[in-house]
Amino acid sequence: MRLWKWPAAVLLAAALVVFPACGGGQEKAKIRIGEVTRSIFYAPQYVALSQGFFKEEGLEVELQTTAGGDKTMTALLSNAIDVALVGSETSIYVYQQGSDDPVINFAQLTQTDGTFLFARKPGASFDWNQLKGSQFLGQRKGGMPQMAGEFTLKKHGINPQKDLTLIQNVDFANIPGAFASGTGDYVQLFEPQASIFEKEGRGKVVASFGVESGHLPYTVFMTKKSYLSKNGAAVQKFTNAVQKAEKWVASKPVEEIVTAIKPYFPDTDQEILKNVVKRYKDQGSFAEDGIIDEAEWNNLQAVMETAGELKTKVPFGTLVDNRFAEKAKQEVK
């Protein structure tokens, strides 16, 4: 989604409104999270909730799904939420528009793209050249899934605009339905839809865009710089809880992770949940700590630049603050 098209009034309001700290000089005990979507990909977040890690840190956390990068960032900028869980590219889009109160990435949750290449008629073996001349149903332009997809195609010598028929005019929620109804030879899918389609016999996952595009600060907890300066102690407690959850996910078997997150996916088949968690765990999508390293940040911008979505490069320290994640990694045992 092209977030830099937001009305100027939204950014102006965000610049004028200062989110208040709790009365009496006390840090806020409640933090409101806006997640960009409800996804198994965000398993460590649901673990932090279900295992009581936020409560252990003395926090009351309210989770809401804000349905889309633009809506999530608008909610953050207008103080409807305190912390956003969304792709790091959104903080860059806001920065590119100009802001007196930039959005700062402070704790990473996932470190790879979460989409997979799904083939309607997979052969005995897969080669990326098989996509040439095909109809490819991709993700919406300007979002990280689309950018990671195009980055991967170009990496394998495929020009997305010339070597195949690229379809990008289908809304995110309608992409699975479009493929199921016959659109596309290949489709770029998130889980659990990829596993559901495999179970239904509609085709097969033949490659991972997460593996192909490398480590990225793909989904990150972020907040406004003004919120960090006023609520540093609460942000540290929040990051400590995230670190506990990330360590827990890294150390536990798939079955235990599924049990922990199942309440957040009551309508998802148990076997599908297991397959999805295993797939993401095996490819290292879940971050084991919240630290965003400079190589990841540079790779993110390389992906954006390849897709033509980066106006100018943003220095690593401008929109990344690792103080909280580094302290959490040291203190959480």
UniProtKB/TrEMBL annotation:
Q: Where in the cell is it found?
A: Periplasm
The answer to whether the entry has keyword Signal is yes
Pfam families, per this entry? NMT1_2
Offer a single GO CC term for the protein.
periplasmic space
Is Endoplasmic reticulum among the key words of this record? no
Q: What is its main location?
A: periplasm
Q: Which UniProt keywords apply?
A: Signal
Q: Where is the signal peptide?
A: 1-23
Please give the PANTHER family that the UniProt record associates with this protein: ALIPHATIC SULFONATES-BINDING PROTEIN-RELATED, TAURINE-BINDING PERIPLASMIC PROTEIN
UniProt record similarity statement: Belongs to the bacterial solute-binding protein SsuA/TauA family.
Listed name of the protein? ABC transporter substrate-binding protein
- Classification of source organism: Bacteria, Bacillati, Bacillota, Bacilli, Bacillales
